[in-house]
From TrEMBL:
UniProt protein name: Dephospho-CoA kinase
Positions bound to ATP: G11, C12, G13, K14, S15, A16
Superkingdom per UniProt: Bacteria
Catalytic reaction annotation: 3'-dephospho-CoA + ATP = ADP + CoA + H(+)
Keyword Nucleotide-binding set for record: yes
EC number(s) from the headed UniProt entry: 2.7.1.24
Length: 197
């Protein structure tokens, strides 16, 4: 199946774009959703995280202690790569498994860190959702109750905007409203249907 990899910086509105594609009947396989599924209780990844990082990585009810883990890997590159080594292969294979469940001309892999994790090589086309950095910051601070400094540090941890745009096959400028967005998605949908055949 033809696979479009959709990505973009935090706050650029990837979810709004995938919602528009989903409304047109396009399957969306979201890396963030899959990432949560692979660490549910009983999953091998959760057990391995517990073995590698100890009891602090798990909450008393046996679920993942996301807050502790996020803080632990933030300042520890070795821990971060250990965690990625546990999660990324499982996320990739689960996304491929979910893809096999659909019988449509094309599907979308929504992957926030598409380039950072090297998954740009595993898709047929790359769609980048973009907007001005000022708009990203205002959206994220409003949505996540994050400070401007936190938001800027997240943006800085992602691939820079210029490099992301340079690697795109298609770009959606999501600076406007949902009404602005729908016709852009519709145009790309028609384009992807042609490319998929």
């Amino acid at each position: 199946m033809f696979v479009v990899g959709l990505t973009g910086g935090i706050g650029c509105g990837k979810s709004a774009v995938t919602d528009c594609f989903a409304a047109l009947g396009v399957p969306i396989i979201d890396a963030d959703v899959v990432a949560r599924a692979v660490v549910e209780p009983g999953q091998p990844a959760l057990r391995e995280i517990g073995e590698q990082f100890g009891t602090d990585a798990l909450l008393p009810d046996g679920t993942l202690n996301r807050v502790w883990l996020r803080e632990h890997i933030f300042s520890n590159p070795d821990a971060k790569s250990t965690l990625e080594g546990i999660l990324h292969p499982r996320i990739r294979s689960e996304m491929r498994r979910r893809l096999d469940e659909f019988d449509t001309p094309y599907a979308i892999f929504s992957i926030p860190l598409l380039f950072e994790t090297g998954q740009d090589k595993s898709v047929d086309r790359i769609l980048v959702v973009d907007c001005a950095p000022e708009l990203q910051i205002s959206r994220v601070t409003r949505r996540d109750q994050a400070s401007e400094a936190q938001t800027k540090s997240i943006i800085a941890s992602q691939i820079d905007r210029k490099s992301r745009l340079a690697k795109a096959d298609d770009i959606i400028d999501n600076s406007g409203t949902l009404d602005d967005l729908r016709p852009m998605v519709e145009l790309l949908h028609q384009k992807y249907l042609k490319l998929a055949h």
